[in-house]
Amino acid sequence: MPKTLDGQITMEKTPSYFVTSEAPKRIHSMAKDIKLIVVVRDPVTRAISDYTQTLSKKPEIPTFEVLAFKNRTLGLIDASWSAFRIGIYALHLENWLQYFPLSQILFVSGERLIVDPAGEMAKVQDFLGLKRVVTEKHFYFNKTKGFPCLKKPEDSSAPRQTLTQPLSHTYSPFSTSLAVYLSP
Q: Which residues bind 3'-phosphoadenylyl sulfate (predicted)?
């Protein structure tokens, strides 16, 4: 983790931490008073999402039905399928509660994050002991994606030429050297 100055909070995001059995012990050994934020979704929606993402990378995988069921006729779910197991949130939470009290863990609803992002962010800011600065005005609905997104700050456009020109000047001899190496 990067060092943090007074008044700063270091945040790190890895979706697999919550479901990785070794993670709670490892994280606890680094920082016992850490605050954990877990975004959860309806487990069925999450399993379908996991499947469609995998399918987009590996079109040859079996159908959702084949992976999700041991026996479709009897309705027997394949509880060993990773996309199913990830959604058994209580099982994963039990592992974390061996190292962290529930008061150090905030669960954020993925569904609420879509319909009320500012409300969910208010909970996050309160949990972290921060002033509520992220509000409704910081979000817009992205029609292409079909969910809310953060607005970019007005001054977040491309850096001004007064900043880029010195960089270009400094890079110039290195770019020339590279061109010499790459020329036929």
A: 41, 49
